């Protein structure tokens, strides 16, 4: 497996991957929604505000994840991990965890202090994420499933309590993702 950061040239294959994976697991409507989100993120991937990591096997994409910058009033380097997709045929084999580990190391190398995500606590706990109260770090928009709000310090210190509600990248600034 080859892991690497992707640029805007990967937009079509990344969007197709997310549409396919989410259509298979969550239904066609959710597949279109998340595929559209992935397309919007990939089109703006700049390796700073929006970072896309891809996993390839035999030259074909088998997984992709996004890290997007969150901007707080407080001075803190923070990112959000979402969405994540691994092709159905490659799920359960550690590819998702490998991509996340690769991406977290990239963020540490860039001196990011923390990462949050919004998803399945059982999966994300395997890569170091812990339940996160909005009393500590607020989500950019109201959460429909608060138990899925998770965080991880990248500095080795406890997550800081941040009072401000962060701004997310434009593609995520829609209630249907929360």
From TrEMBL:
- Gene3D superfamilies, sorted: 3.40.630.30
> Which GO terms fall under molecular function for this chain's record?
acyltransferase activity, transferring groups other than amino-acyl groups
Q: Name one Pfam family in it.
A: Acetyltransf_9
Transferase recorded as keyword: yes
Give the UniProt keywords, A-Z.
Answer: Transferase
Organism domain of life: Bacteria
UniProt key word Transferase: yes
Tell me where in this chain the N-acetyltransferase domain is found.
1-148
The UniProt entry, under PROSITE patterns, shows: GNAT
Q: What is this protein called?
A: Acetyltransferase
List the source organism.
Answer: Hydrogenophaga crassostreae
- Upper lineage: Bacteria, Pseudomonadati, Pseudomonadota, Betaproteobacteria, Burkholderiales
